Write a sequence for this structure.
C-alpha cells in the first residue's frame, strides 16, 4: 500500500476542521498529570504533549469526560507500539519530534511551561479541514514522511477512536446495545435520542 | 487402546465434514472423524464472544504480533482482528508457496471455517449445472438440479436458512425461515430497482444460515440476537456451524469418534481390491504416524487440502495421485471474484437509525446472460450483488471541526446513510489455474507444501466492468448522491473470496474428471470427496450450501453401498 493510501486508511489525509472554538478557554493552564502512567512508546516529552493535545481536542464538558479521563493517551501510546509497524512508528516519531520543535523548548522553557494557547495556535495553523490543502504534502507528494498536518490529523483521529472505544464512553455516553435481539429501521430520537451506538 | 478400524473415516470437520459425520453416524456407520487442528467446543471455546471493543487490546485491531504470524491471513484486512484471529491459521507454522499470488485463508480446528463463514446460502440452478455443456467449457456437470433439490431441502430444514423466495429460474426457491428486515434505505433501493429496470433485476434480503424463528436441532440453537459477532462463534447457536449443529448430532448417535490434531496426508490404496483401505495420519502434537482403516473414506478437508491428500496418495496404480488418471487433480481451481461495485450516500432518512446489528445484507440475484435483453456480448455467466445500507457511526461534521466541545458533540452523533453494492462474480474453470505439491519445501511434519499458480482470466476481467457500471446505474437510478464505482482488481487475488473450489471436479468421464455424480473418485469408488473440490463450475452463488447438499447426498449413497456390501 502506498504511503498516501495508508494515511487515508487511517483517516488522516482527508484533512480536518478549522473553526475558532469561541467557547473554549484559551487561557486555561496545562495541568494534566503526566506522571501517573509509564508509556510503552512515547518519550516523556511526547507523553506530555499528547496528554495536552487530546484534552484540547476532546475537552471535559458538563456531561462528558475529557479524553484523558478515559485514558486516551494510554490507548494511543499502546496503539502506536502494538499496532503500527516499525516503519510507521518511526515516521510517527519523526513527525512528533518536528511538532515538538515548534514548541521552542529551551533550557529555561520545559515542556510543562508550554501553554494551552501555544498548543491551540499550532492546531489552528496545522490541523486541516476537508477543503484545506496541506502545503507540506503538496511539496513532497510521495515522501514517506508524515507532515505536521497529517500528524495532527492522526492524533485527532486516534483521540476520537480511543475515546469512543473506551468503556465509559461506550457504555454510558454513547448508546450501548449489546444484545439488540431484533433488527429494524426506527426513529432516531426514539431509539437513541439522536446519539450513535457504541457497538 | 485406540481403535484403528472403523466403518467410515471423515477427513475434516468443516461445513462438509460435519455433514458427512452426521449423516454417516445417523445411518449407523461407526465413523472416525479426523481433524488436523485443535478441539473447539461450542460456546465453551468462544473466548471473545461477549467482549466489547474496550475489553480487547487496541480496540480489537490486529496487533503487530498477530500480523507477523499471520501475514497471508491479514491480506483479507479483517480475519486478523483480535476478536477472532485465533480461529485463523499461523502462516509461519502452516506455510504455502505462490507462483502467482493466492490468498489461502484457513482455520485449522474442529468446525473449520463453518465457525467463521459468511453464512450466505443460495442454491445453484440448472442454469449453472448446464452452463459448461451449453458453452462447451471444461466438462459437463454429471448432475442436474432435480438430482440435488431434495438434498438442498433437507439441509436447509436442518440448519435453518432465513430469507425470501422469489420464484426465479436462476435462483431456485428454498426452504426458508422468515426473512430478516431490510432497512429504510434498502427498501427505497429495492422499489427503485423494480420500477426502473426491465431486465428482471431485483433486490431482496440476503438468504443467510441464521435462525430467525424457533430453534433448530444441535447443541442449544436459538434465534439470532443481531449482535453481529458471528465470526467469534455464536453463544446463541443462531447461525449454523458444525460445532453447534452437525457434530453434536453425530456425537449423539454414539457412532462418532472425533480425533483432533490428526493430519491426514494419504489415502491408502489396495491394488487387489481396487479400493482404499484407510488413511495415514500424523499426530500434530506427538508427530506419531498412525494408520486408520475403514471401508468408506470421505475427504472433506477443503478444496485445496483434499486435493493435496489425493496428490500425496501415490501408488503403482496411481503414480500421479489417487484418482488422477485425468491429470485434472489440483487443476481448475476457482474462487469468486469481487471487490468491485459502487458506493453512494442516501439523503432523506436523517431521522431514522437501525436498531440492532444485522449480520446480513441485501442480495441482488444474477440478472445477466439469462436470455433476451439480459445477455451480454462482453462476457459469459453472471454475478450477484451483496452489501446494503447502514448509517455511519459518526457525523460528517467531524471532518469540518478541529477540536473542542463542538467536535466532541459531532463524534457522538450518527452520520449519513451509506450504500454499498458489492458484486460477486462467477469464475470460469481453467485447467491452467492450479495448485501442486512442492516436495522440496517441507512443513514441520515433513509433509510437502502446496504451491498455487492461478489467476482470474479474461472473462472475469470483462465481467468486472459490467459489475461496476450496473452498480453505479442502480444507485443513480435510486436517486442516491455521490455515487462512486470502484474496482480493486489490482489489490485482490484469487482466494480472497475464500470460496476456493474445483480441484477434483465432477464429470461424466474418468478421462477428464476426478469424481463421478455421487462424489466418488471414478477409479476408487469408496473414496468420496465432498468439499469445494468437486465443483465443476463455480456459479456466482456462495457455495457452502451446495457443499452441504452434495455431502448429504454422497453420504446417503455411501451408506447404501456400505450396507449392500456388508
Amino acid at each position: 500500500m502506498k504511503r498516501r493510501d495508508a494515511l487515508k486508511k487511517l483517516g488522516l489525509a482527508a484533512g480536518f476542521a478549522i473553526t475558532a472554538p469561541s467557547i473554549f478557554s484559551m487561557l486555561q493552564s496545562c495541568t494534566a498529570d503526566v506522571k501517573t502512567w509509564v508509556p510503552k512508546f512515547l518519550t516523556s516529552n511526547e507523553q506530555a504533549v499528547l496528554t495536552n493535545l487530546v484534552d484540547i481536542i476532546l475537552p471535559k464538558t458538563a456531561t462528558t469526560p475529557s479524553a484523558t479521563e478515559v485514558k486516551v493517551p494510554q490507548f494511543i501510546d499502546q496503539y502506536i507500539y502494538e499496532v503500527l509497524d516499525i516503519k510507521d512508528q518511526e515516521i510517527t516519531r519523526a513527525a512528533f519530534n518536528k511538532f515538538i520543535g515548534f514548541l521552542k523548548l529551551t533550557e529555561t522553557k520545559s515542556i510543562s511551561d508550554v501553554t494551552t494557547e501555544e498548543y491551540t495556535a499550532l492546531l489552528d495553523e496545522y490541523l486541516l479541514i476537508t477543503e484545506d490543502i496541506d502545503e507540506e504534502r503538496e511539496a513532497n507528494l510521495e515522501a514517506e514522511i508524515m507532515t505536521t498536518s497529517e500528524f495532527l490529523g492522526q492524533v485527532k483521529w486516534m483521540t476520537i477512536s480511543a475515546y469512543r472505544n473506551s468503556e465509559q464512553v461506550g457504555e454510558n455516553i454513547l448508546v450501548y446495545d449489546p444484545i439488540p435481539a431484533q433488527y429494524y429501521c426506527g426513529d432516531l430520537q426514539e431509539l437513541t435520542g439522536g446519539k450513535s451506538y457504541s457497538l | 487402546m485406540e481403535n484403528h478400524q472403523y466403518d467410515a473415516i471423515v477427513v475434516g470437520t468443516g461445513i462438509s465434514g460435519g455433514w458427512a459425520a452426521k449423516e454417516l453416524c445417523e445411518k449407523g456407520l461407526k465413523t472416525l472423524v479426523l481433524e488436523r487442528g485443535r478441539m473447539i467446543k461450542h460456546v465453551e471455546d468462544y473466548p471473545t464472544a461477549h467482549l466489547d471493543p474496550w475489553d480487547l487490546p487496541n480496540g480489537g485491531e490486529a496487533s503487530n504480533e498477530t500480523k507477523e504470524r499471520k501475514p497471508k491471513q491479514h491480506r483479507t484486512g479483517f480475519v486478523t482482528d483480535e476478536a477472532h484471529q485465533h480461529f485463523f491459521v499461523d502462516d509461519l507454522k502452516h506455510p504455502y508457496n505462490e507462483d502467482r499470488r493466492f490468498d489461502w485463508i484457513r482455520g485449522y480446528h474442529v468446525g473449520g471455517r463453518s465457525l467463521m463463514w459468511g453464512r450466505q446460502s443460495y442454491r445453484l440452478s440448472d442454469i449453472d449445472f448446464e452452463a459448461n455443456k451449453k458453452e462447451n467449457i471444461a466438462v459437463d456437470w454429471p448432475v442436474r438440479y432435480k438430482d440435488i433439490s431434495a438434498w438442498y431441502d433437507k439441509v436447509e430444514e436442518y440448519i435453518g436458512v432465513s430469507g425470501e423466495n422469489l420464484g426465479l429460474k436462476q435462483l431456485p426457491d428454498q426452504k426458508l425461515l422468515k426473512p430478516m428486515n431490510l432497512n429504510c434505505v434498502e427498501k427505497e433501493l429495492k422499489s427503485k430497482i423494480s420500477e426502473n429496470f426491465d431486465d428482471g433485476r431485483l433486490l431482496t434480503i440476503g438468504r443467510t444460515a441464521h435462525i430467525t424463528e424457533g430453534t433448530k436441532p444441535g447443541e442449544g440453537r436459538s434465534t439470532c440476537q443481531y449482535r453481529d459477532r458471528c465470526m467469534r462463534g455464536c453463544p446463541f447457536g443462531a447461525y449454523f456451524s458444525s460445532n453447534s449443529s452437525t457434530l453434536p448430532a453425530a456425537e449423539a448417535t454414539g457412532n462418532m469418534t472425533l480425533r483432533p490434531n490428526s493430519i491426514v496426508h494419504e489415502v491408502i490404496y489396495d491394488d487387489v481390491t481396487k479400493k482404499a483401505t484407510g488413511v495415514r495420519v500424523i499426530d500434530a502434537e506427538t508427530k506419531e504416524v498412525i494408520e486408520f482403516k475403514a471401508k468408506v473414506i470421505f475427504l472433506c478437508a477443503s478444496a485445496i487440502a483434499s486435493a493435496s491428500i489425493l496428490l500425496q496418495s501415490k501408488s503403482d496404480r496411481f503414480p500421479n495421485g489417487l484418482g488422477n488418471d485425468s491429470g485434472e487433480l489440483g487443476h481448475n481451481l476457482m474462487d469468486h471474484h469481487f471487490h468491485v461495485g459502487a458506493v453512494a450516500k442516501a439523503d432523506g432518512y436523517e431521522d431514522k437509525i437501525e436498531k440492532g446489528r444485522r449480520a446480513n445484507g441485501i442480495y441482488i440475484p444474477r440478472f445477466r446472460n439469462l436470455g433476451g435483453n439480459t445477455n451480454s456480448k462482453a462476457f459469459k455467466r453472471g454475478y450477484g450483488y451483496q452489501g446494503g445500507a447502514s448509517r455511519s457511526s459518526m457525523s460528517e461534521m467531524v471532518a469540518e471541526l478541529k477540536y473542542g466541545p463542538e467536535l466532541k458533540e459531532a463524534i457522538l452523533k450518527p452520520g449519513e446513510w451509506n450504500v454499498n453494492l458489492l458484486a460477486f462474480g462467477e469464475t470460469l474453470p481453467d485447467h491452467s489455474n492450479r495448485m501442486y505439491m512442492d516436495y522440496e519445501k517441507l512443513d514441520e511434519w515433513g509433509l510437502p507444501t502446496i504451491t498455487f499458480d492461478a489467476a482470474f482470466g479474461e472473462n472475469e476481467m470483462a465481467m468486472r466492468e459490467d459489475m461496476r457500471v450496473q452498480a453505479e446505474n442502480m444507485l443513480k437510478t435510486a436517486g442516491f448522491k455521490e455515487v462512486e464505482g470502484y474496482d480493486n482488481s489490482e489489490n485482490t487475488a484469487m482466494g480472497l473470496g475464500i470460496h476456493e473450489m474445483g480441484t477434483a471436479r465432477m464429470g461424466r468421464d474418468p478421462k477428464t474428471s476426478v469424481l463421478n455424480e455421487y462424489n466418488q473418485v471414478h477409479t476408487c469408488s469408496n473414496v468420496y470427496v465432498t468439499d469445494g473440490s468437486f465443483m465443476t463450475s463455480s456459479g456466482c452463488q456462495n457455495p457452502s450450501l451446495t457443499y452441504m447438499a452434495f455431502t448429504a447426498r454422497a453420504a446417503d449413497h455411501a451408506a447404501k453401498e456400505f450396507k449392500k456390501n456388508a
Summary: The CA atoms of residues 277 and 286 of chain B lie 24 Å apart.
